[in-house]
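#struct-pred

JT: dropping the chains for the assembly here, can someone run the whole complex?
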Amino acid sequence: MVLGSALDILTQAGTPRIVFNDLPLGNPAGKPFDTAMQLRSVDAALALFYAAEEGGALETLPHRWSEQDDWRRNFMEVRPDNQAQLLSLGDENRRQRLENKRLGLFRP
Amino acid sequence: MNIEYIQRTRDYYRAQGFERDYRWANNNAIPFSRPQKPLGDARLAIITTAVVEPQIPKPTRSAKSYPLDEIPEHFDTSELSWDKTTTHTNDRESYFPIQALTSRVEDGSLGSLAPRFHFVPTEYSQRHTLTQDAPLIATHCLEDAVDLAILIPI
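RK: done, full complex below.
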């Protein structure tokens, strides 16, 4: 069972049971400090263990992050004005990978 | 409209100058089994991608199990990929809902929690996940007589 927020990734991976919280990545069990939402998420997961009839069972929770959907743009946003910054992030990432290799920081 | 994370990841790393797209796990055969015990008798294991030991360098992190009474007050999430613009991870319950689960044990609707929880790294390499991390966690779950396992990835 996975309780998560990236539905396309979970579906493609072949997850047996998915409880989907359509929230920003980071809070798969519910909004921070919203204990009622978190408990509903947990209850939905516990219930789906038993309600699922076959692999790929999906329960979509009715939770919303906010009235507006602006937040959906934020994660990994590519804009004309951040292209240079992203390229430089990529350069740093590639440099770090080489450095890790040199230092023997990798898994066999 | 759900966010298309696979496409978004592709666009983001192309914009960073990477030429080969990441290939997300893609399985057509979905494993499935029914619980053998009713919920009130079942034992549940929690699996998280939140980091317990940030001092271990990210490229060398592998799956590891920890006693349930050693849950960190705050896990390290700084090196994980989540929406840092919109939200935060200052409330552990929002990604590791141990209080919510414990309350269901206390009211009798859930049998028990496993004596260990499990960390699985968000790995670039599916080989590491499939041949090292997942089998280790599965072994530990069997040792702990776990009936149900829930992965809550950040």
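JT: nice. Chain B has one domain: 37-152. Strands of chain B lie at 43-48, 64-67, 112-113, 116-119, 148-152.
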